[in-house]
């Protein structure tokens, strides 16, 4: 058997389905968010990024950068071991305390990524509970799905953000331990879960709640603790899962919860035990970002203002923007090839970078440009984006150029 | 159901089995490897680390630290997105080229950790091959086991480093695609796989080879490419898996192989697709470490000399050290409670930090102190360690004090 042929064929399948992804190589420019250098096939070129999850530009905040550099100079670049074997560094312990405080929980536990925190957190919690039933929203992130799969326990999938659909699933198993897993803010549609109502059901039917807030931490609530904190339901959530890699501008993920729960995951989760600890400089940088956003509301206000302004002008221009109540602005294309074409034209002709979002990140037929305004996308950049989008949407050579507008 | 009781009971079980782990909180001191500050219950105290996987002290190398700081200042602390969505940064692309070159392969792919690289790499490769049989060494790392489990394909476990046991497993399935997964250097026993013989069997029976070199990269071979490179078998290995978090002093993992294989994993592995890219400063730091170790042999020579000297003096003192041909020096205790006691005494009375290695990291009954001399553990530190070990091994109050010596 020629193994390489297997992999070549797998790639051909993707190309045939127009799902083959080409990564754009960029170099961001600290202090000039949202600008970056695109290393294009024709050489370096300055572009504007409109699709980053560094929502508040915190990865370029002077306090965050200097925290990383200072700790690197003082302790070195890496942790040098797993948490158990020489890897538990002071900046990491401090970060976990900071996260517990952020979410008003007794304890926090840091993983190497948000993906791993869901995968290891959910699978370990469900396994420890034993005969557990997981109730999972149909649009939950791949990392949640993998966590559930790894747990090996039964799961039922509820319709998206639909408590009327969720309730009978809970009611059907009165005697069984249950874990409701959901996201507070779904990143592709930009919609919010009915957190309070989910908590009501959890109380009524004796279920635990696990809430993924990765697209909300830093961004919502008076201290940036997320949607549950903003809505006053944080005390009703058993486990908050978050990331350090989006609004906090670094890398890593975490869970926060009761002391016993966090300690048990710490002791039982293979994906936590057998991996090198997060480097001290990253921990210090994340802590600096969290602390800044606990007291500064300016970044959040600017970002929300940018998002509101962008949605307003896009709607006025009859661009097919999906209405959202959050900072996510999905511009629907609903075709993989056209979505890629639109993205390519924006980059080539306008120096605007918005990655096409195709399957498997979103269901087929719902392909989109997912636009994420940051605190740094002011009026001039919004005007520039609008002009570019209108130009691309009007290209006569593009079959979709008039139809989305006509569909409005 | 009171869920918290479940977690409390799970912790009680660990305490009853003497498996409850207490992490030592340390702060390493850049420029003074292997010294660190231990934040002990009684306050900060200077200690010597003898159990780090930062084997060559590269996390504190001035070039590595300045690469991290320089890139953080230039681009910011985080990547800001997944690889597909604004996260493919130039330092990461450069790092992948460097890794491909290091291992003489066409391409490399970086993950957020070595754990994830095995988990996502093995599961994706095996799934793509289809009706694949995985042959796995019985002592393979947990991340390999999880990768195999996630693949969902059949697997057979071979006896440790035993080609005579492996051959019939391969021969039994002549028509089937097969993947042999093994480590070049097993980190707990410090022994080496018969890489060439495994490759011979792979050729004979038409199997692919996947070799985990996480405890060998940077440390063996003229350019630090690992055991397979040192032994001239690298061209016979289909996939090399390595880490940036041990000898290279940073964080992250990777695989290297053919263009088609790497591209297919890039396109199909959920654990790669749905996670934020490694931060540019970490990529730059890792690249600096790899480049340094490609040309500098001094760190490797010093480390090997330290390990040889330590093994020699420990054997002479009749301490129960397991013979190895590598830089790993396991001191056998074979009891979980005693292993923890020995570790505690070394730390408390001698300021020497060697974490006890208990189940599930090693099988029950094979508990040990795993000593890892680095390039920076010179003669004076070795003498100090030897005195401390002899002192601890002679404590009359310790039941194991005389028995390991008597067993020699």
UniProtKB/TrEMBL annotation, chains A, B:
Its EC number is 2.3.1.37. GO terms for biological process: protoporphyrinogen IX biosynthetic process. Gene3D superfamilies: Aspartate Aminotransferase, domain 1, Type I PLP-dependent aspartate aminotransferase-like (Major domain). Keywords: Acyltransferase, Heme biosynthesis, Pyridoxal phosphate, Transferase. Its cofactor is pyridoxal 5'-phosphate. Pathway: Porphyrin-containing compound metabolism; protoporphyrin-IX biosynthesis; 5-aminolevulinate from glycine: step 1/1. Homodimer. PANTHER family: 2-AMINO-3-KETOBUTYRATE COENZYME A LIGASE, MITOCHONDRIAL (PTHR13693:SF102), CLASS II AMINOTRANSFERASE/8-AMINO-7-OXONONANOATE SYNTHASE (PTHR13693). This is 5-aminolevulinate synthase. It comes from Bradyrhizobium hipponense.
């Amino acid at each position: 058997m020629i193994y390489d042929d297997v992999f070549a064929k797998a790639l051909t399948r993707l190309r045939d389905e127009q799902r083959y992804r080409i990564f754009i190589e960029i170099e961001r420019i600290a202090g000039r968010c949202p600008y970056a250098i695109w290393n294009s096939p024709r050489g370096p070129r300055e572009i504007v990024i409109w699709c980053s999850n560094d929502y508040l530009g915190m990865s370029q905040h002077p306090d965050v950068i200097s925290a990383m550099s200072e700790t690197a100079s003082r302790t070195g670049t890496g942790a040098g071991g797993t948490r158990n074997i020489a890897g538990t560094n002071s900046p990491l312990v401090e970060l976990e305390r900071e996260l517990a405080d952020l979410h008003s929980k007794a304890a926090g536990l840091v993983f190497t990524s948000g993906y791993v925190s869901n995968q290891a957190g959910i699978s370990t919690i469900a396994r420890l509970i034993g005969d557990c039933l997981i109730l999972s929203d149909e649009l939950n992130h791949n990392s949640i799905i993998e966590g559930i799969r790894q747990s090996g326990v039964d799961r039922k999938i509820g319709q998206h953000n639909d408590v009327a659909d969720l309730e009978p699933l809970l009611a059907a198993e009165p005697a069984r331990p249950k874990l409701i897993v959901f996201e507070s803010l779904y990143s592709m549609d930009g919609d919010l879960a009915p957190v309070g109502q989910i908590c009501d059901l959890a109380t009524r039917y004796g279920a635990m709640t696990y809430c993924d807030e990765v697209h909300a931490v830093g961004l919502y609530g008076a201290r940036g603790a997320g949607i549950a904190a903003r809505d006053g339901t944080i005390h009703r959530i058993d486990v908050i899962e978050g990331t350090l890699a989006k609004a906090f501008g670094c890398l890593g993920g975490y869970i926060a919860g009761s002391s016993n729960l966090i300690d048990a995951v710490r002791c039982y989760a293979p994906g936590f035990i057998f991996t090198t600890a997060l480097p001290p400089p990253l921990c210090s940088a994340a802590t600096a970002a969290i602390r800044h956003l606990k007291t500064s509301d300016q970044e959040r206000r600017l970002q929300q203002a940018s998002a509101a302004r962008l949605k307003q002008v896009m709607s006025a221009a009859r661009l097919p923007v999906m209405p959202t109540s959050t900072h996510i602005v999905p511009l629907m294309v609903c075709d993989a090839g056209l979505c890629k074409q639109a993205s390519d034209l924006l980059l080539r002709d306008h120096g605007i970078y918005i990655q096409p979002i195709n399957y498997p990140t979103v269901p087929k037929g719902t392909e989109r440009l997912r636009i994420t305004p940051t605190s740094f996308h002011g009026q001039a950049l919004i005007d520039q984006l609008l002009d570019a989008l209108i130009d691309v949407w009007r290209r006569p050579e593009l079959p979709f150029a008039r139809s989305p507008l006509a569909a409005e």
